[in-house]
Structure formats: C-alpha cells, structure tokens
Structure prediction request, 563 residues.
Amino acid sequence: MAKKTALASSDIDWISRDRRVIDGLDHLGIELISVNLYQAMLPGITNVTERARYYSFYPWCIHRYAQKGPTDRTRTNWIKWLRALDFSYATACVAHDQQSEEAFGSAVVGGDRASELLKGKALTATIDLRSSSSVNENGKVEASGAYFKNPQGGFGQYYRGPLLEMAVIVQHEQNAWPDVRLTNYAGRQIADVIDRQKAFQNLLEIAGEGRATVGNLSEIGSKVHPTSIEPRSREETILRSIFLGTDADLCRGQALEQMEWRSRSLRLMLDYMQRSELIEESPDYEYRWACLAKALPDGSEWPCSPDLTTIRSAWGAYQRNDTLNYCLECLMGVVLHLLEDGPRRPMSISEQIADMAMAPVAATEEFASMHALPKHVSQWVNACERAPEQARADPWGKLSTWQWADRLQDACTERDLPAICGLAVRVLGRLVTDRGEFRKHPFESIPHATEMAQSHEIHIQRWWSLIASHSEDSTKNFLVRLLLDWVIFRHLRVATRKLAGQGVSTYKFRPEMGKLVLVAERLPEATFTAPRVRQAYRILTDLRMVKREDEGWAITQDGIKAI
Prediction:
C-alpha cells in the first residue's frame, strides 16, 4: 500500500473539480504499440476469448432465436433470450466442473456467479437461473447478482467482434435484433451442428424454465462443456478450418491477410511445441522468448520452416518492444517507491535513479555481480552486448536477455530498488544490439505496423534511433534525460490527456510547487502485455491439437498434421 501523502495546498480547482479517480492501466501510454502488433498477428482471438466452443455456441444461440424466439423481435426480447442461454450454459459447465473436481475450471462467461449459486449444493437442490440473467423491460441490467453487466453477456462483450472478424456472423442489413446474422458458408453450418446435439436442446429447455437441479445441470454440462467437442466431429472440423484457414469455402468471408496471419501464428505455435516435444511450464511465455532467441527449450536452434520464419521474426520484434515497455514501467515503479518518502523534484529523483542504475549490480545466490556502467552511451551499449556465438551456444544462459528480464522481475518482487534500476537499464542496453532479423524496420513484416508506429513516440525503433543520436553522450546525463522525458513527464502528459479526454484521473503523482507529490492509493506493478497466445493455446487444446498432461504441454498427432 502506498503511503498517503497530504495534498493540502495542491487541492486547487483543476484537481478538486474531478474526483473520479481510477487505477487505470498503461500509465506511460506505451503499450498500444504491443497491442496493435499482436492484434495484427492473431486476429479473431482476443485476451478474453478463452474457449473454442463459444465460436459455435453463440452462432447456435442466434440460430435458435431465429427459429424459436419470441415473435416480437425487439432488442429486449433478444437480450432476455441470449442471457438466459448464456448463464444456463455457464452454470451447467461449472456444475460439471464441481462434480468432476476439475481443477482448472471452465473459463466460461458468468462462471464466478454460477460458482456462487452452486457452492455446497446437493445434486437434488434446485438452482434459480433466471434471477442472475434477468434485465428490466428496457433491456438494462439492474440486479446486483447479475452474472454479467453487458446486456448481451459474453457475446456482446467478448465474442461478437471475433465472430465478425472470422465471418461467422455479419452485420444485419436491416434494423433488426439481433443486429447480426449468420453467414451461410460458416455461421449457419456450425449452428446446425450444435442444433443436432440433444444436450443443447436440453440446455434450451432449462434456460426457458429458468431453473434446474444441480444433478441435471451437471449432466448437461458434461456434454456441452468446452472440453466436450467430439473428436473427429463436424464441429471440430469446422472450427479447426475456420481458425487455421484450411477450407476456402468456410473462410471465404474472412479478410485474406487476417486469415493468413492467424493461421501462420497458430501453425508457428504448434511448430514450436512439436520441436520442443514437451513444455513443462506455461507455453505462451516460453513461446514469446523462443521467437526472440530462435531457440528451443533445450537450447538448440529452432529450425523453423521457411514459410514461418517471417512470422517468428515478427513475434520476436513484438517481444523486444514489449521488453522495452516493461523496463520503462519498472523505472516508473522506482519513481513511485521513492516518492513514498515525500515530495521530490523531478531532476533530483532522476539523478538518484540514474546513479543507482550506473552502479554495480550486487551478486545473488544464482547470479554474479555486474560491473558499473561506463561513462559514455556507446560504451554502455557495448558493455551490455552479448557475442552472437555465445548466444547461439547458450541461448538461455545467465547472460541471456530472458535471464536478465527474469532477474529484473525478481528484483521488482523483492522491491530491491538499486537492482531494479541497474537491471532495467542493462536490459535496455541489451535491446540495442539484440535486434533479430529485419531489413529496415523491426515491424516491417507486420500488416500496417510501420505506418502505425510512426504516430507513436516510444517503441523499439525509436529506442534504437535515440541511442544512435546520443552515442557519445554521458551515460548518466542520457539516463537522467530518459527518465524525465520517457517516464516522469511522460506519465504526467498521459494522465492529463486522460483527464481532459475521458474525465478520469489516473495520476500516480502530480506536480506541486516544482515537486512531484505521490497521490496513488496503491502502486501499480510493471507488467508485460498479454498477447493472446495463452488463449490461442487453450483453443488449440479444446480442438485437440495440443494436450495438457501431468508433465506439461505437448502436441497431438492432429496438431502435427496441422503444421
């Protein structure tokens, strides 16, 4: 918890007028580049589209409404119909999880509310499904125990956009509800498959009744659960084809460029898993660093097939950019920690951090100490460079970029401010020379990314250019200027823009009488962005191209065939 600092004389009009304070995200306004990159590389999958079955379940909801929904097709009637099915589905899946003691849960929309209703209930107990999904006559969510705030549930909040991107649904040409319709070549086919499954007809019945016993819910849940897509079924075949772009007819409504990038990214993820044989930890984070280093978990070279090399290079560029962001956010965290002791002038705090960054980094039980940084920027960069032959021989060793980043994360966890400063600046120096494969721009192979990056102040290309233009400067002076421009003043500009544009205050510190005053109730943690890879691996697992075992993650024969 951050130390509360009295504002007293800083309670001036422009602050007092706006009391809608939120924690906010991305306090330096630098994560949008990374977000735009992974959106281009994995379109149709988002950070909240957790399960493959929703890509067939929601089209079926639209289809059933067209066949059996109320005659009066109003917005409110559609919302009531959809929410009843959406929450009934979630409750059935969670009931199955609880009876089967599934440790990892369903990741279904409304799962938390369903868990509350089911907790401690006997199989014969009746569960009220209607109250948690109800809306008023205007289609607005009013109940405090509602399973989801968005009137259109998980469809409206999470899956509508991806289903449009993948041409499973399209915008309705007329003023109608729902305001989308199924495509005949993809949406209708997947909905028809679900419609022929008796368990979904049973789900429709309990949604209409608004109640069911725990035992009945569990039985239905075992058959409609995200993990219950039948092997070799038409549903599995259609979903695989849509995600991987392997059926020209099913995918004919998709933008070709988007389909190809998603397909190649998924195939690259499968290729990495096949060549790794077994991944013991979470595969998504490993995959990102593997793309940067072009290496497999055992340290051997990743012999990527030629048609996937460009995709791997693009993901490597993403990881470098995201690591740059992470280092800057770590330095922002140090600013906040130092402000807990009281107001400080920007120059004073920047000089203190620069001094800590340049000092030697103390040894730990696992890692050796690091020498103090040299006096000039070019020397600093050279000191952080890793010889290419060493990187090839030991890509995951203690001098690797990944190990340095992990060591930085550990320092953040321990709130070791000198180590955070020293390691963040050394990783930043490493990123100058650890560039990967590119011809002119690190984002050049990613659709529209080069043009997008031109309108942003901070990204990996700008970092390289900044270092090149100041290579003979004093290292300390450069770091002081970097902290002022890319961290301290950057946060104030971003927070001021949000206050002016959105009417919310996201300030973690504010200026007063030439000093910075801490205003954060709690200090944010530096984080890497979440680039949809975890969700993609989970979808591949649902479609039986990847499997999770006690020892870790591995590819299946179907996954190998998909590469």
